[in-house]
Amino acid sequence: MSSHHLNTEPVLERLFFNNRVFFLAFFLLATVVLGWQAMQYRIDASFEKMIPLKHPFIQNWMERRDELGSGGNSLRISVEAKEGDIFDAGYMESLRRLTDDVFYLPGVDRAALKSLWTANVRWLEVTEDGFEGGPVIPQTYDGSRQSLEELRVNILRSGQVGSLVANNFRSSIIEFPLLEFNPETGEKLDYKALSQKLEELRTKYSVQGVDLHIIGFAKILGDLFEGVDAIKIFFLLAIAITLVLLFAYSRCLKSTLVAVFCSLVAVVWQLGLLTAMGFGIDLYSILVPFLVFAIGVSHGVQIINNIGIESAHDATPLDAARRTFRTLYIPGMLALVSDAIGFLTLLVIEISVIRDLAIAASIGVAVIILTNLVLLPVLMSYIGVSRRASDRLKVTEKKEAITWRAMSYFAHPVVAPLSVVLAVAGFGASYYFSQDLKIGDLDPGAPELRADSRYNLDNKFITENYSTSADTFITMVETDTEQCSSYAFMDALDRYMWHMKNVDGVQDAVSMVTVAKQVIKGLNEGNPKWQALSRNQYVLNNAISNQTAQQLYNKDCSLAPVLIFLEDHKAETLQRVVQATEAFAVENNQDGLTFLMATGNAGVEAATNEVIGYAQNQMLVFVYGVVSILCLITFRSVRALICIIVPLALTSLLCQALMAQLGIGIKVATLPVIALGVGIGVDYGIYIYTRLEGFLRQGMPLQQAYYMTLRTTGKAVIFTGITLAIGVGTWIFSPIKFQADMGMLLTFMFVWNMIGAIWLMPALARFVLRPELLATKAREEAVLKSQVPAG
């Protein structure tokens, strides 16, 4: 190698390869330290991290949290008698003991616990002597037939049939909200431990003649935690698949192991850095280490492939590694910086789990710049490609030439227009089918879990056996202090409830007015004609003075929630409820009367849907904007930008159409997929365009330049796309539905991004690029360089 050539080597190349021992020692030390940190990572879960805390609905709830309780974070346990009904001494004893066990579970808001055995579940009736009432469980209850009959009467008088007691009297519910932090210790609620305790109760009471059906946000998280082991298995499976396919591709065990090792080092560094920064891994970002591994392998294959080609032309391991670094570090750096900044665009979504995912993915991609663009070629400069693999590459290059020659026709003047027409048709068709794409959940129960999961079967049981569903939308109605019993305020609540009961998807609406009407009717001999609000203030005061009504307004009588029970929490149902409430609020809000949305699990989900609906287009604009700017800075050509971006855009639109047709809504679990797909997919386009432009600058015709691109970078892109698709495709069999959905979508995007780069980019280049202009510029640059004195 001449001194002149050495002087023209990039500064980074000289820095890394002239100081290889120092940098290897640095990588070893960093890996040990960060590996130790990574071993301390924790899986984090929090109700508040899953919701948009800055959304007006959530802020309304948070400001009134002490008066309203835990919002949507509650659990319901339906206790079903295996034989007979609930009016059985054995069943009632099991229910009593279970209520006591639940009372002492961590995180339970004990004051709000409701069961047939708690004092806050009461009956009320009017007699000739006035009002009579008391706890549903008689004070004289002893399990005898007579006391069980009295219990039956009390339950019928309590109005709890359909809500706390099943319509068929074969089960009853224990309901309790959860506290995010333990008020005594200040520690966060451990959802995994809580779910395990609930499962222990399920097992314990199953042998006592009752079956437990448990639903609620905390149980969803608990069941997802159980699926974490499956995620680990799929990660190991992906590593094994990658090893096998990479070895089959390279036929060099050394380079295969080094490439996979460097990608695993990136994962270790990512987990270590996240732990050192105080971040936990939540149930969504736990999938990010696989994506980091996948991106690392993607770039590693390019490097191994290029080193193999150089070695086949008799370069030494050091020269092959240096030339590869010199060729690939700029496109590799551009691709990875685009990935990292593109992932950071997810920060525009004000939901903590998505922001944490964005940070985790960006850190992971950033470390790949070191582990795969630096560490991998430096290691390969010592290890090299085996002679057997180099000899095989010389033979296969000749055999594969026919395939690459055939595929180069994608850039042919006759084929390219057909490809562009087909792409335009793809844009049109995907746009048409993507119009059905919905925001939020499209299925009942927990869409994060499969339809036949234990949780969704429990949810189905409760939905079928109770009149009021678990999907509750709570509107907060505010007035002045001590004015919640005024006729004007209660009449507004009454009209709002009637308004909402006529909205499609609403089962029922309950508020303090519901109790007041029942009391007024009771005071008038039970005549249904009197089941209405009185304008007499003394009557209204008396009607809400009982214990049942007092649970439906706050202590200073300035806030009353309206509980709206929904048939489901599908996006369309929530949208109708929100629009109906907004319309009513616009007409009725005034001084001393304000309708505020929303809490309850359905209210929280409605807020989440609104944030995602607004952010999805904003996120796409940002991610494509970032990638476009970086491509313009690097290639300084709008033509290059078109060649790289158009195939990505087609894949994104096709993915949205696929989601619409498969019934997958845009939600917390699926929204990041599109950004991740763009981030990973742009790598293919950058590598291929860089090589294609290089050959065009040498004066080659477009089809010949593309043929040379396919022989080098193109086959590595094809291999990477297929390998990553197979690895992530295994997720489709995961017991966790959202992981299966992500696996399906990422598989689709990996494959289509690869197809777009291989098939559509050369066709676009035929119309967009001007090869003769690139060749002229290259000659001019060469002349200018030759006129610069060496050294």
Automatic annotation (TrEMBL):
- Enumerate the subcellular locations listed in this protein's record, separating them with semicolons: Cell membrane
Determine the domain of life of the protein's source: Bacteria
Q: Which residues span the membrane?
A: 21-39, 230-249, 256-277, 283-307, 328-351, 357-385, 406-433, 619-635, 642-664, 670-690, 716-733, 745-769
In the bilayer, the protein is annotated as:
Multi-pass membrane protein
Q: What does the record list as coiled-coil region(s)?
A: none
> Where is the SSD domain positioned along the sequence?
257-382
Q: What is this protein called?
A: RND family transporter
